[in-house]
Amino acid sequence: MRAEHVNAFVVPSVEVLQRMGGLGVRIGAVQRVEAPCLDGRLSILIGLQGRLSGHVMLTAARPVALGLAERIAGGDLGEDPEPEVRAILAELANTIVGNATGHLYELGIREGITPPTVLQGGEVDFNFGAGVESVLVPLDTDVGRIDVIVSLAREAP
After folding, report:
1. Reduced to 3 states, what is the DSSP secondary structure of residue 11?
2. What is the pLDDT of residue 127?
3. How far apart are CA 10 and CA 4, in angstroms?
4. For residues 108 and 98, what is the distance between their CA atoms, to the nearest angstrom?
5. What span, in angstroms and rounded, lies between the C-alpha atoms of 129 and 132?
């Protein structure tokens, strides 16, 4: 996986979190992952279709997801915040990946994206299949750690 492909998602992630959430964001050490474990986390999955095929996932522990959603919404989300948290984070992920397609377009890569899928619950492990490389980019923010996982099929030589 090329660094510029990963950066096409990391840069908009930082920019959108700063702009929409008013957050300070620090990029942690990038690491390869085989099968991301989403144990008890709220995760948003968006598919990529085009020259690069794969998925991008934004994932956070539930308290971090709530804190982020409240920052974006501008306040408390009430007694049952879960539906609102899911909707806000799905739109956040959609905005990030939409902006990333602009970065990819500048690299000469046109991509389509799928609508966001919200995943939450118990133990969930992802295996995107043979020939897919996944990297996890931790983003340390004012509300806690948010992970961006970029999983792309290897390009033909």
Report:
1. helix
2. 64
3. 10
4. 15
5. 6
With residues binned 3-state (H G I as helix, E B as strand, rest as coil), the percentages for the chain, rounded to 5, are: 35, 35, 30
Domains annotated for the chain, with CATH where assigned, are 3-153 (3.40.1550.10)
* Residue 47 burial by Cβ neighbours in a 10 Å radius (0-12, 13-18, 19+): middle
Higher pLDDT, 152 or 1: 152
CA distance 105 to 155: 17
Distance of alpha carbon 19 from alpha carbon 81, whole angstroms: 22
What is the C-alpha separation between 16 and 120, in angstroms, rounded?
A: 22
- Cα–Cα dist 92/156, whole Å: 31
Task: Give me the DSSP letters along 69-120.
Answer: HHHHHTS---S--HHHHHHHHHHHHHHHHHHHHHHHHHTT--EEEPPPEEEE
Q: pLDDT tens, 77-115? A: 888 888 898 889 888 888 888 888 888 888 888 878 888
Provide the whole-model pTM: 0.86
Span 10-23, average pLDDT: 91
